[in-house]
């Protein structure tokens, strides 16, 4: 692995400019966590401080020139390449695995004893900005990053992080149970799955409470959407698409699939991936987190784009993006600035992380580099280009429950139009209240 060496004397010239952003007052906090099952491993609890209170004690900043906080899984993947980068640049680097990293980072940064860099999902950004915990960054050349990744790192017109990994949904195909490895429509997929004799033509988690994240490609294909967009591309929380005419069409399609037995509330997260891994499903809608279990089951599979309904819109799943953010009150801003500069201009650090934590890269050149050896993992690096970043605005917290419950009820046989419109009205009332 080659770690790029850069001299700190040239910090002002490298082009990654950072500025403090005043906290936004009076707005609600971001949702506590993304509903996607992607990479949710918790870090081990760090050594408590002198209070002995492991639950409330703030993590102790490591004694190093550059300190990075993230969860335990990412910390293990990042530690070696980050330290190698530090050695190349003549500084010490410590990567700490922190449980509940987002909340504990906000507290530590406000006290001035937090890290210089924090790593996390893009739906952290709103809360971190509102608490004045991170600063915006300027990436001089974004051409090697997936457009969706840069969009996810953007909040209120400013880029707040360097993306490194993307996750979205794709269509897993059991090539032994279907003769159609890349169906053009959902209807073709269902017919092919049924013709192949699979126990389930499609496995997708619904559950009794619904799962809007996994339903999103079907919902968008029907014409539904969560929030509209302003002229500058930012989300408009006053334009709720859950009770739109397109959402009604999508709801009707979900109802039809429920009536056919293709979708079922009896299938939740406990069934979907295991069933596919056991060879009981011709197709499955899931993400890269399913790969290890599918491969452990010995399934002859491939990953392709999720098709849309015949004659309707393309399917557009949600995407989550992991990124590196610079702490507003870190002790060594210049070191953090240089690290992000090198991270953005080279694939070395992310390539080294991939060796132990195989997340689809955000950098297109690294996706191409890894395709031959890891085709199904990096496939999601291509699929993310047709995805939309999961809404990271505070109002999204009002959406998950009502939309999920409505979709589950429709799949169970409730009237599609009245049910989805009622959910939309409920969301609007909460946001407007």
How is the secondary structure organized here?
Blueprint: E1 66-70, H1 72-89, E2 93-97, H2 101-111, E3 117-121, H3 125-130, H4 147-152, E4 154-155, E5 158-159, E6 162-168, E7 170-174, H5 186-195, E8 200-203, H6 212-222, E9 227-229, E10 235-240, H7 245-259, H8 269-277, E11 281-286, H9 291-296, E12 301-304, E13 318-326, H10 333-345, H11 348-354, H12 364-370, H13 375-383, E14 388-389, H14 400-411, H15 416-432
Parallel strand pairs: 1-2, 1-3, 8-11, 13-14
Antiparallel strand pairs: 3-13, 4-5, 6-13, 7-11, 7-12, 9-10
State the major sheet.
6 strands, mixed
Question: Can you tell me the CATH class of the largest domain?
Answer: Alpha Beta
Q: Average pLDDT across residues?
A: 88
Helix content: 25-40%
| Secondary structure category | alpha/beta
Into which percentage range does the β-strand content fall? 15-25%
CATH H-level superfamily title of the largest domain:
Periplasmic binding protein-like II
């Amino acid at each position: 692995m080659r770690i790029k060496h850069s001299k700190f004397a040239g910090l002002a010239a490298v082009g990654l400019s950072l500025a403090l952003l005043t906290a936004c007052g009076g707005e609600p906090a971001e949702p506590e966590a993304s509903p996607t099952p992607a990479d949710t491993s918790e870090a081990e609890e760090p050594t408590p401080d002198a209070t002995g209170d492991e639950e409330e004690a703030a993590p102790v900043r490591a004694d190093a020139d550059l300190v990075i906080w993230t969860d335990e899984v990412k910390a293990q993947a990042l530690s070696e390449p980050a330290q190698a980068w530090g050695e190349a640049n003549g500084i010490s680097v410590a990567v700490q695995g922190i449980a509940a990293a987002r909340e504990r980072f906000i507290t530590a940064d406000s006290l001035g004893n937090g890290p210089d860099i924090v790593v996390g999902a893009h739906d952290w950004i709103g809360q971190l900005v509102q608490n004045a915990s991170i600063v915006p960054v300027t990436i001089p050349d974004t051409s090697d990053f997936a457009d969706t990744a840069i969009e996810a790192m953007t909040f209120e017109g400013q880029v707040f992080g360097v993306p490194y990994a993307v996750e979205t949904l794709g269509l897993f195909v059991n090539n032994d149970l279907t003769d159609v490895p890349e169906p053009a429509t959902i209807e073709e997929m269902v017919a092919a799955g049924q013709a192949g004799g699979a126990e389930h033509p499609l496995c997708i988690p619904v559950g009794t409470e619904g799962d809007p994240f996994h339903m999103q490609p079907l919902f968008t294909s029907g014409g539904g959407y969560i929030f509209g967009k302003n002229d500058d591309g930012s989300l408009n929380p006053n334009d709720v698409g859950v009770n739109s005419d397109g959402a009604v069409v999508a709801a009707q399609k979900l109802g039809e699939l429920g009536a056919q037995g293709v979708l079922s509330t009896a299938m939740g997260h406990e069934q979907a991936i295991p069933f596919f891994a056991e060879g009981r499903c011709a197709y499955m809608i899931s993400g890269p987190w399913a790969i290890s279990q599918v491969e452990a089951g010995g399934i002859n599979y491939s990953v392709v784009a999720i098709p849309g309904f015949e004659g309707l819109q393309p399917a557009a799943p949600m995407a989550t993006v992991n990124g590196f953010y610079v702490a507003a009150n870190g002790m060594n801003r210049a070191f953090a600035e240089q690290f992000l500069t090198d991270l953005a201009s080279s694939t070395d650090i992310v390539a080294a992380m991939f060796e132990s934590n195989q997340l689809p890269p955000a950098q297109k050149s690294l996706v191409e580099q890894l395709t031959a050896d890891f085709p199904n993992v990096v496939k999601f690096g291509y699929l993310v280009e047709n995805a939309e970043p999961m809404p990271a605005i505070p109002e999204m917290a009002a959406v998950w429950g009502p939309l999920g419950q409505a979709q589950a009820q429709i799949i169970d046989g409730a009237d599609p139009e009245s049910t989805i419109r009622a959910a939309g009205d409920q969301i609007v009332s909460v946001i407007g209240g």
